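Saturday, quiet lab. Running sequence design on the structure tokens for the scaffold JK sent over.
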């Protein structure tokens, strides 16, 4: 199938904004702040930046190189490298399918919060309220509505669906974040929040949870290890600089996460929510923070509306990239028409997400298993394949529009050494400290 029939980006800006939209999600706007609050504030931020450069950026570059060189979605792209790696592309598509099945449920919670804040329907007892909207019929409806919106965008195609939405929503997201950060600076807790966020506690830098948490967050926030960036890069043409695009994507993604912290930490300290944040990331986001906003009457309702609007934009742009991974794979492998593919897969994903819409325990378990372990495994395999088995062709593709031999050599060295070591460590602790407890919480509670 030709590149034209698959679709291409109309502009480099459109590609960058779409890729940033795919990377930016709830993990940036809230997960980053939550992880930083658990890891010593600025100590976590310093480590996060280090791992973005040494782990995230090399793997992101590898995905872009594979996508542009092959011009194919993950299954065919990995098969083009060598037939024995085709199975990894299948894993990428399966993981994207599975992640979207529960991510759209979280997106549904966010959309419901947005609507109810805008209409003034969020009650003071936010704990009971969240319990009502997070499981059962309300959650199923919001989940299905979010999936329909995602399907419609993907059915529109690369230029008229994904790119058109990205060039509108991403600037809106940036403006919302800037506005929220300016408002947060006026809160009485801003000074304490900034101090916690920006003052390094270097003793925390050497703690295992801080190190592995920062490495994991740097990897997760860029949406790596599931073929999303391979898919988006497969619609690229020309000889532009891949490292330049990778730096732009990683830089914008990191900036959003950083500004998100400038919003959330003043809120956390103004409303004295640090203890609530330490207990649960979901509880803090959907129970504690809304309760704080409600203390501010109409102003809090207005800010809450903008806050959850920013979160919903981040969620929908990530959902788009997840569905596109699956859709493009079926278009390339089976020759299906885009609209038909988007609707069939979207409906199947919506059905697969029903357990998560009926039980928040399923959300926690699937996030730990698919959103962490399988993403890390995918990134580890990409690093090893690109660094050891495909390095010659990868370097040739990287050098198209990029003439620094030293940086190209450094990239391969990182893929062969630092990236695998870091991801193996994170993989071990993700399984032992996240997946196993989540599995016990789910299956222990249901036994």
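Result came back. Writing it out in full:
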């Amino acid at each position: 199938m030709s590149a034209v029939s698959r679709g291409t980006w109309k502009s480099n800006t459109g590609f960058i904004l779409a890729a940033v939209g795919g990377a930016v999600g709830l993990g940036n706007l809230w997960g980053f702040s939550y992880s930083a609050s658990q890891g010593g504030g600025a100590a976590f931020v310093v480590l996060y930046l280090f791992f973005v450069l040494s782990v995230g950026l090399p793997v992101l570059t590898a995905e872009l190189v594979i996508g542009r060189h092959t011009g194919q979605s993950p299954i065919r792209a990995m098969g083009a490298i060598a037939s024995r790696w085709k199975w990894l592309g299948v894993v990428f598509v399966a993981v994207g399918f599975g992640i979207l099945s529960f991510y759209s449920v979280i997106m549904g919670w966010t959309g419901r919060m947005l609507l109810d804040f805008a209409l003034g329907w969020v009650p003071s007892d936010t704990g009971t309220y969240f319990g009502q909207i997070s499981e059962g019929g309300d959650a199923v409806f919001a989940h299905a509505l979010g999936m329909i919106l995602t399907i419609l965008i993907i059915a529109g195609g690369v230029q008229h669906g994904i790119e058109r939405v990205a060039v509108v929503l991403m600037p809106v997201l940036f403006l919302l974040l800037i506005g929220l950060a300016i408002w947060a600076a006026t809160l009485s807790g801003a000074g304490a929040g900034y101090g916690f966020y920006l003052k390094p506690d270097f003793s925390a830098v050497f703690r295992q949870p801080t190190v592995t948490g920062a490495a994991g967050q740097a990897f997760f926030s860029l949406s790596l290890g599931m073929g999303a960036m391979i898919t988006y890069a497969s619609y690229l043409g020309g000889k532009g600089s891949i490292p330049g695009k990778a730096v732009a994507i990683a830089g914008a993604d990191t900036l959003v996460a950083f500004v998100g912290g400038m919003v959330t930490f003043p809120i956390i300290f103004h409303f004295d929510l640090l203890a609530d944040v330490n207990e649960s990331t979901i509880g803090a986001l959907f129970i504690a923070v809304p309760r704080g906003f409600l203390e501010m009457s109409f102003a809090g309702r207005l800010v809450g509306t903008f806050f959850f609007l920013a979160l919903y934009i981040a969620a929908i742009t990530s959902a788009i990239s997840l569905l596109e991974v699956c859709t493009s794979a079926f278009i390339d492998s089976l020759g299906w028409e885009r609209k038909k593919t988007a609707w069939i897969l979207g409906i199947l994903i919506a059905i697969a997400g029903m357990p998560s819409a009926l039980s928040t325990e399923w959300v926690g378990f699937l996030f730990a298993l698919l959103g962490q372990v399988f993403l890390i495994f995918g990134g580890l395999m990409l690093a090893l394949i690109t660094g050891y088995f495909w390095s010659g062709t990868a370097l040739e593709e990287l050098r198209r529009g990029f003439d620094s031999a030293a940086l190209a050599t450094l990239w391969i060295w990182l893929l062969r050494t630092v990236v695998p070591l870091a991801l193996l460590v994170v993989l071990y602790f993700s399984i032992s400290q996240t997946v196993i407890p989540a599995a016990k919480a789910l299956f222990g509670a249901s036994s």
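Notes for JK: The chain has a mean pLDDT of 91. Residues 3-354 form a domain with the Hydantoin permease fold (CATH 1.10.4160.10). Ask whether to fix the surface positions before the next round.
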